[in-house]
Automatic annotation (TrEMBL):
Function per UniProt: Accepts ubiquitin from the E1 complex and catalyzes its covalent attachment to other proteins. In vitro catalyzes 'Lys-11'- and 'Lys-48'-linked polyubiquitination. Acts as an essential factor of the anaphase promoting complex/cyclosome (APC/C), a cell cycle-regulated ubiquitin ligase that controls progression through mitosis. Acts by initiating 'Lys-11'-linked polyubiquitin chains on APC/C substrates, leading to the degradation of APC/C substrates by the proteasome and promoting mitotic exit.
Class of enzymatic activity (EC top level): transferase
Biased composition, class Polar residues, residue ranges: 57-69
Annotated active site: C170 (glycyl thioester intermediate)
Annotated protein name in UniProt: Ubiquitin-conjugating enzyme E2 C
Amino acid sequence: METLKRSSRRDNSLMRSVMELVTNQTQIRFESLTADWLSAWREAFEFCSASRDDLKMSSQNTDPATAASSAALKGSEAGGSAARGSVTKRLQQELMTLMMSGDKGISAFPESDNLFKWIGTIDGAQGTVYEGLRYKLSLEFPSGYPYKAPRVKFITACFHPNVDEQGFICLDILKDKWSALYDVRSILLSIQSLLGEPNNDSPLNTTAAELWENQEGEK
C-alpha cells in the first residue's frame, strides 16, 4: 500500500512538473511576441488606410456591368452588416454578464477594438494538479454566432488529455453539443471544469491521458 502511495505521488508530481514547464515557457514566448505582434498589426492597419483612397479613385471609372455588380454587392453587404450588428449586440451583452457575474478564476475581454475576438483567462481549480496555474485562451466568434460555436483554443500551452499541441480543445459543447443558449461565461466555466475532470475516452494528448489514468488508478 505504501508503495502505491509513493507511486501515485510520483505520477502526480511528474504531471505537475510537465504542466508548469510547458506553461511557463509558453508565457515567456507570448509576452516576447506581444510587442512584435502589435507593431505588425499597426503596420497592416496603416497600409489598409493608405490604400483606401486609391480604391475610391479607381471605382469612379466603371462600366455599367461593373456598376450593377457593385450595387448587388452593396445590397449583400447591407444584409451582412445587419447580421453582424446583431452578433455585436449579443457579444456586448455577454461581456456585461461576465463582468457582473463575480465568478472567480475566469475572465475574458475583447482583444483591442475587435469585438469578434476575445482573450480569456482560466485559473486551475483548487484541489487539482492545475491549481495555481493560469491559462490564456483565444475566442473567435463567427458571423453566425450564437447559432454557430466560437473557435476556442489555448494560447498558453496546456498539458491535458483533451488539449492538443496547437491548443485546440476536445469539448462537446464547442462541437456537436453546441447550443445558442451557451455564452462566453458557460464556455470558460466548462473548460475550467474540464481541466480537473478530463474525458479520457477521446484524448487529444495520449501521453497526458496515460499519466492521468495512472494517477487515478493508484489513488
